[in-house]
Amino acid sequence: MKNKLILLLLTSLTAAVASLQAQAVAPAVVPATASGVSFTATAAVASQYMFRGQRLNGAGFQPTIEMTAGDFTAGIWANVVLDKQVPDSSDPEFDLYASYTMTLSKDLTLVPGITAYVYPSAPTSAGFYRSTIEPSVALNYTVEGVKLTPKLYYDTILKGATYEMTAGYALPLKDLGSELGFTATVGTYLLKEFANNTTPSVKAWGDYWLVGVTMPFQLDKNSKLSVGVAYTEGRNAFTKQGNLGRSPNGLATGRGVVTVGYSLSF
User: Which residues contact residue 120 at a Cβ distance below 8 angstroms, ignoring those fewer than 6 apart?
Assistant: First the structure.
């Protein structure tokens, strides 16, 4: 009986030791973590503030703070006039935006988004709005290194749609450790409530295009300097109130724009 008890104790001890050894060599189970959240702060200066072929203001300081969490992006962009303010224009302007990227295939994504345009000092007596809201949806398709982005916007305050097509291509500059980012955009819009507090309503429509190139310089792991040059122009742009004849949109014009920006990611 004593020998059987000793044998049983030895067997139990051996099993316990083997269990401890197995736990020591087995890989630890690490719970899955959520996608990381990152922020990018950008300070930029632009020689002109052009938006869809319209010159909204002269030179401006244009800072951005953007957050990315997985496929979700949100941020705030601003424009503060530095020189040659357009008469009766809004200064400053704040744009709050958000979007979500949905992967449909290797080269195709769907991106619904929304932007709130805020003009706290806009002269409403001159027909300007203090804020508008613009949902959007875009498709991104990449073929042979060219990224094609058809996009639809609809402004719920101005009561109108904007249709836009953008093409982008990055040309590597290996010797410089950088690249040239080429962009071309064409668009058209039709807005049914272009002016605030007017009866009858004022319609606005027009076309625009843009071509540009940007070159980033990576300063260190988390910061870079970017220099961009673009030319954009508004064409066939008119406004019309009620049954009156159409009038040329005085904001639509062609301008070259130079932008210099410094970005810090953390």
Answer: 90, 92, 94, 130
